[in-house]
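Input record (one chain):
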Amino acid sequence: MSLPEVLISSLLLASSSSAAIGVWSQAMATWQQSSTLQQRADQLELLQLASHRWLQGHGAERNLLISGSGPCLLDAQALAVALEQGVPLPQGITRQWVVDPELLGVWQELSALNVDGELLMRRRQLVSPAAYGLCMS
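The corresponding structure, as predicted from the sequence alone:
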């Protein structure tokens, strides 16, 4: 092999190796991002289940209903305080309670945020007082 052939083959090897490393790096970054997103989704699901279990076990012990109301209605504020103590949230996850417009219960909205505070995903779950045996009639 002559010197120009060696130089050209070395240049081709270096450029193809560089391109392969770039593609590999991009694939790893995409995989890491999807893995992180899946972990956050799993975390939200576990928090929904933990809230459900806490309400099953401790919901009747607390005064979570609006007193003096005709239908059996949950007090969103009391529910927020009780679950904040019973099922605390990890960093990067927020919880909001929204009263259902048809008065079927209260929606628990769990949101996962990235490090910049931007919304990654949100999960909603309807919490109905009847489902947890909180209604006497």
